[in-house]
Amino acid sequence: MTELLAEHGKQRCHRQRLNALLKNTRGMVRIASAYVTDRQLLVGTKNRSVHLLVSLGSMDIASGATLPEALRALIDAGVECRFLSNRNRPRLHAKVYIFGNAAAVVTSANLTANAFDSNIEVGVEVGSPHVEALREWFDDLWAKAHPLNTARFAALSQQAAALRREYSNLKKKINDELKIPIEPLPSPG
Judging by DSSP bridges, how do beta strands 50-55 and 29-33 pair with one another? Predict the structure, then answer.
């Protein structure tokens, strides 16, 4: 079984399909996503075992690619989170959603509001035997990752705070410098 998930204009399919798989899956849900800003998909999963693996560097937080509030809400909702730091090479860039032993979605969509609500994303839902191979891949990375609890998260957030201010100032400076006035074209003779 293979199913294509492709966004077409205003027709959004990723969130809808992931919600359906989440609702109908027995067993553990495993998600690898470099960035996290969306809480909506996983907040109601208290009675389910969910493992979320993220790439978490100071710049990920400083740039807004990962929102501290989203991770905190997911941890509070019972999602077990681990991270691979940017010091790990190669860097986690995968976006994989594994639903028990039944199905997996390999996609371009991070666990972010933009991916689910506005970006042009494409993914493929697969079944056996690919699910088992993806579970093994995920579990190997999970074993190498660092637990993300509220104490560790607070330390990472504090480290990223100064970077966030610097990043914001630099972004503003670049935007200001790129605002080049456009001269009107001369009218034809």
Answer: parallel
